[in-house]
Every structure is written in structure tokens, then in C-alpha cells.
Amino acid sequence: MKLNAKSLIAITVCAIILPTIAADAPKETKTKKACCNQQQAEQPQVDLVFVLDTTGSMSGLIKEAKEKIWSIVNTVSQARPTPKVRLGIIGFRDRGDTYVTDFNPMTEDIDKIYSRLMTYQAQGGGDRPESVNQALHEAVNKMNWSKNKKTTKTIFLVGDSPPHMDYQQDVKYQESCKLARKKDIVINTVLCGNHSDTRGIWQDIAQRGGGSFFEVEQGGSTITIPTPYDVKIKKIIIELEGCKIPYGDATIQRAAMEKSKVSGSIFKSASDTANAQRAEYKIYKSKSAPTTNDLLEKLSRKDISQKDIKTEKLPQKLQKMSSEQRAVYIKDLQAKRLTLTKQLRELSDKRQQYIRENISKKKLENSFENQVFKNMNKQMKTKGLELKESDLKL
Fold first, then answer.
1. What is the pTM of this model?
2. N or C, fewer C-beta in 10 Å, the chain?
3. Are the beta carbons of 154 and 47 closer than 8 angstroms?
4. What are the CB-based long-range contacts (under 8 Å, 24+) for 338-347?
């Protein structure tokens, strides 16, 4: 059989293309498998929101919240597998006060939330019922909750006064609880003080919201034990904050400067105890979730090499250095950070041991931190996360 020119061309093309397609098919399968493996290895997430009564009677708990927010976030971060933690806060008062709600969406930048919390002063209120309904509705309906079904989504409603049930155009807590269930959000309630007019409603909210109810003293029942290590830890974390090199464009450089200012403000305004707790969280997070725009992190992860560093992406100080000077500066900073990090971890372990040796089991059991720990552990287990008793940070 004779083949014309067109037939010969068609056979030749098939001979070239078909093996290529066959060779590419397994690659595509491998790519899909890699994507699946990446999705399976996706870091779990915890979305945590505190809805906090900031009226006059809550001064004690607000003061203690400023001391303990870091230890709570640090405790949650200890879960296995290690989760990404986002924190949000809503302060609420009542109509006619300075504000009805102070809304702060969830973020991984805990410094941002803490800085806002530090501005809270217990004021207003006085007539007992407060705008609980509005605050809870905003927490459920307006907060930037993850849509991932595997995410742990938890609210802690903290206060001592019942909601106004007489306000018109106000979404009542029963409706908010129903919506929370649909969104897989758990609502826990924390009653501060012995208030019989609030207890029943707080229990009802927790039951409807699929969460737990517990009581603490009006002052909060938190554990605050100054240790001999707090000041040392604070000094080290201040030094560690300086062991960073922001790497990126002008926007990244400005953001780094702003974060540095926020850190400086926290160092000055927060107590030594709170700064120590913040340091413990920072050092743990640096291990589990490294900063993406820090040059030293990029170099340690081998995302970039010294020869690939672009001068225009460095802070002004380093741009003025020669490549040799810069290499020496980076090497010294890396060594300093390793030393400080080791010291901080050792001091943090000693600090936690000191606290546990100087606290009674009864006080620990009834503490606000332990109640949050137990409830978070129960709720996180449903999403495949687990905490051990030793993970409770104080």
C-alpha cells in the first residue's frame, strides 16, 4: 500500500505527539497528588473571639484580661497538630454610653488586638442590663469567621449583666445562638460575680450556643504570679525584636516600622508579667509559624541565599553597607538571635515551673485560665486538635 505525503505527515506527527502525551499523563497525576498532599497537610486553625462587657463593674476583669490574653493564646497554640490562631475582641456597653460595641476583627497579629485591649477602661453602664444582644449578634454575624469546616470557631461571652430584651430593632440572643449553630460556632459564657439575674440567661445562651457556662469572681479569678524571671525575659524579648531584618518593598518596610512601634508601646505599657507571657508566645510562634518577611528567617529556611539578596529590598541601614559588611552583619545577628532564643526558652521553662510550684491546686483548678483551657480543649478535640494538661500556660 502506497502512502501519500499527507498520510506520512500525519503518521510522523502522531509518532511525536503521542509519546509526549503519555509521558505527561503521570506528571499530571503526580501534580494532583502533590496538591492533595498539600491540602491534607494544611495547618489547622482556631478562631477565637472574646465578647467583653467593658462597663464600670468590670474593671477588675478588664485589668486581668490585659495580663492574661497572651497566656490564653499561647495555651491554644500548644495544641497538636500546631494550629494557626486568630483572635478577635468586641467590647460592649450600652446605648447612651461612649460606644455600644467596639469591634475588632480576628487577626493573627495578637499585638494589634492587645494594643486595643490596653485602651479599654471600665466605664458606663449602671442600669444592669447592657447591649449583650447587639454584641453577640455582631460576634456571630459580622466577625470574619473562617469558612473552613475544620476550623475551631469559639466565642467567650464575658460579663455580669443580662441583655436588654426591651430594645426594638435588636437581634435577640436566641436568634444569634441559632445562627451560630448553623455556622458551627460554639458560644461559651463566663459570669463574673454572683448575679442571679444574669446566671439563668448566661446558662441559656451557653446551652443554645452549644458551649459551656462557668463562673468566676467579679475580679476575674485569673492567676498572676510575678516571678524572678519576668524582667530578664522582658529584656531578652526587647533585644530579640531588634534581631530582625525586614525584607521587601517600601510597603513591607513601613509595616515593619509600624509593628516595631507597637512593640515598643507594649513594652512600656504592659506589666513585666504580661511582657513575659507575650515573649513566651512570640518564641513559640517563631518556631511554628516563622515570619515570612524577615530576611533571617528566609536565610535559615534557605528560601534565599546571600548572593540573591536584592539591595533595594533591604532597610536603608543595610543598603549603605558593602556586600562584605552586610554578610558579617547578618552572620552576627543570626548568632545573636540563636543565643537569645535559647536563653528565652530556658527562662520560660523556669518561669512556668516557678508558677506551678507557687500556686495551690485549688486556685489553679478554679482559675479563669483553666476554665478557658478545659473548654477550648473539649471544643478543639471535635476538630482533631488536642491539648495536654502540661500545655496550660500561666
1. 0.83
2. N
3. yes
4. 340/236, 340/239, 340/240, 340/243, 341/240, 341/283, 341/286, 343/236, 344/233, 344/236, 344/237, 344/240, 344/279, 344/283, 345/283, 347/229, 347/232, 347/233, 347/236
Domain parsing of the chain, residue ranges: 45-223+360-391, 230-357
How would CATH label the architecture of 45-223+360-391? 3-Layer(aba) Sandwich (3.40)
E-assigned strand segments in the chain: 45-53, 84-92, 101-107, 152-159, 186-192, 210-216
The CA distance from 127 to 209, in Å, is 26
